[in-house]
Design a protein that fits this description.
This protein has about 250 residues and is an alpha/beta fold. Helix content is about 40%, strand content about 20%. The chain has one domain: Rossmann fold, CATH 3.40.50.150. The longest helix is centred in the C-terminal third of the chain and has 18 residues.
Length: about 250
């Protein structure tokens, strides 16, 4: 058993309580080491960009235990959802919560999906764990359709000395995190090459964002829904709905 599998096997019974602040010690942990960041609100924000009547294809990687997503997915009756995780222990708990959704064990750096298979890729608390960041970003980009949406949140370095110390000296050594880690600036530079960034928020040492895969039309990159080469008008409607939501939030 490798380091990542072993680390998540050891913590499978406390993982949910830690992220959701379900105990006194987890509340103290989040307050002291993470500045009180609210993972629940961040997850709710990301999931709010996906309409309940979405009928396209969604990839959730890593699904973890589905602690943040199971209620949302149960409302998405028309969606085609695929969940992937490297940890068999995390996947087992996700299956218990979502027995009717497709669950696969696999490596984000070597996914067995065709190019441009998904309309949405959701990745919550994943990129700070993935061992090969370049492959992870490359693969999530590859399997996402042109004009598709990447929704993600994860740890970035350089925002808090105590959080950075925890990430490097405890979490990374135990296999829960895997360096190197992006900074806000390096992540933006990485994303801007491939995506149109619609939302990019840094909350303490956690970043969350909503980005659209660029569509190349001649020498220009765009994410104009009028120019999307999609088979269904539904996705155009989803795109416009998301932009409307973003406009309302800014007011």
């Amino acid at each position: 058993m490798d380091k990542i599998q072993k680390s998540y096997k050891q913590t499978k019974n406390i993982y949910d309580k830690t992220l959701t602040r379900g105990s006194i010690w987890s509340k103290l942990y989040i307050r002291i080491f993470w500045g009180g960041v609210d993972d629940i609100k961040i997850a709710e924000t990301l999931l709010s960009y996906i309409p309940d009547d979405f009928s396209g294809k969604l990839l959730d990687v890593p699904v973890g235990t589905a602690v943040f997503t199971h209620k949302k997915y149960k409302r998405m009756k028309n969606a085609h959802i695929t969940c992937l995780d490297y940890s068999t222990d995390m996947l087992e708990q996700a299956k218990n919560r979502l027995p009717d959704i497709k669950m696969l064990q696999g490596d984000v750096g070597n996914m067995k999906f065709d190019d441009e298979s998904f309309d949405i890729v959701l990745s919550m608390n994943g990129f700070h764990v993935f061992p090969d960041k370049e492959k992870a970003f490359s693969e999530t980009y590859r399997v996402l359709k042109k004009g598709g949406v990447l929704l993600s949140c994860f740890y970035i370095k350089g925002k808090s000395k105590i959080t950075d110390w925890l990430a490097n000296n405890i979490l990374a050594k135990r296999g829960w995190f895997t360096p190197p880690f992006d900074t806000e600036e390096s992540l933006k530079a990485r994303l801007e090459k491939l995506y149109d960034i619609k939302t990019f928020v840094v909350d303490r040492s956690i970043v969350y964002f909503y980005a659209v895969k660029k569509i190349r039309t001649g020498l220009r990159d765009c994410a104009d829904p009028k120019k999307l080469d999609q088979k269904s008008n539904f996705w155009r409607s989803v795109f416009l709905w998301q932009n409307t939501l973003l406009s309302l939030r800014k007011k």
